[in-house]
Design goal:
The complex is a heterotrimer. Chain A is α/β, with parallel strands linked by helices. Chain A is built from 4 helices and 5 strands; from the N terminus they run βαβαβαβαβ. Classes of the chains: A alpha/beta, B alpha/beta, C mainly alpha.
């Protein structure tokens, strides 16, 4: 299934909780302030990396660009545009939004 | 001039997810007209407000980050940034916009506005203010 | 929504006559906005208008009068960087009136 996270991991535990509750094989999409979870070398980077083998982590490109961090994200995170967001929503039977 | 008070604007929110950052900036611009001693502090997610290279075309919101560079003209010359907040986010001062002001008393020499501070320095900074505004 | 007409073009303006979409601005639009403010445009007026548009382009805000005065003085010379000079050009307030003619939003903090 698809999990979306739209809150900064430094302000809320949405991302950490999502990472802990996402089953193997799920897709995790970071949007809005959630894209800060993709930052390389941050305090949550190791937690994000630890699920990379099991789940696929995506980040919404326009939200990365707006925040000036497109060139500061970890390797292994897949950047998608709005069309890619729609594809992910269609490919997955369920969506859990970690607000 | 009447006695001026020390104002500290505390910015703790990321720029586009909520309206706090933009609201704070507008209040700073309005407040600057009253010629008080205005300082800004960027702490927690507030440090994201001044990250360089912001480009909001894709999300169709106004990119207000260039406005921080105008604050020197408004005699806002001290922008304190939390060292710990940068580190926690994997950022360094080089990831921030180069914010400067021109010093009228020093033949308009261009000087850095950004001052890195640690937790203890922030605590002291807050204590020495007349007014603290939180965003 | 109110509109103004420039050479057959219909442009949206707000209830105070400020242009909504600043990308629609050109010199003709500036002339028309000046007419609505009863300002006769001269070379000196355009100098200030051009300055304001450049400032907005760089910082995404229209400067407050105090900031405008100082910046004009630095760029165009001391004899122009004072409120007397700017008020002579734009009697109803340089920030408010000049911004309107420049097609910019009303300056933040300007009531």
């Amino acid at each position: 299934m698809l999990h979306t996270v739209n809150k900064s991991p430094f302000e809320k535990n949405s991302l950490v909780s999502c990472l802990e509750h996402a089953a193997d094989g799920s897709a995790i999409l970071l949007i809005e302030d959630g894209v800060y979870g993709a930052l390389n070398g941050s305090a949550v980077a190791d937690k994000v990396k630890s699920v990379m083998g099991k789940s696929t982590i995506y980040a919404l490109g326009p939200d990365l660009d707006a925040r000036g961090i497109a060139d500061k994200i970890m390797d292994g995170i897949k950047v998608v545009d709005y069309a890619g967001f729609v594809d992910l929503a269609c490919e997955n039977d369920k969506v859990q939004a970690w607000l | 001039m009447s006695e001026s008070k020390k104002f500290l604007y505390v910015n703790r929110k990321a720029p586009y997810g909520t309206v706090y950052a933009l609201e704070s900036l507008e209040v700073v611009l309005i407040g600057a007209a009253f010629e008080q001693d205005v300082q800004l502090l960027f702490v927690d997610d507030g440090v994201f407000q001044i990250v360089k290279g912001q480009d909001t075309k894709g999300i169709e919101m106004k990119n207000f980050s260039p406005t921080y560079s105008a604050l020197g003209d408004y005699e806002v010359t001290k922008m304190y940034v939390s060292k710990e907040s940068l580190e926690e986010r994997g950022l360094t001062v080089d990831d921030l916009m180069p914010l400067t002001y021109e010093d009228e008393d020093d033949d308009w020499a261009e000087k850095d506005s950004i001052i890195l501070v640690n937790k203890d320095e922030i605590a002291a900074l807050m204590e020495e203010q007349d007014v603290v505004l939180s965003f | 929504m109110a509109t103004m007409t420039v050479n057959g073009r219909e442009l949206e303006v707000d209830e105070e006559g400020y242009l909504i979409d600043l990308s629609q601005w050109d010199k003709e639009v500036g002339e028309e906005l000046a007419k609505s403010e009863n300002v006769e445009m001269t070379e000196s007026h355009w100098e200030v208008i051009d300055f304001l548009r450049e400032y907005y382009d760089e910082y995404q805000i229209a400067p407050a009068v105090r900031v405008l005065t100082k910046a004009i003085g630095k760029k165009l010379g001391k004899e122009k960087g004072n409120s007397k000079y700017l008020y002579e050009l734009f009697p109803y307030g340089p920030a408010k009136q000049a911004c309107k003619i420049a097609g910019l939003p009303k300056p933040t903090g300007c009531i």
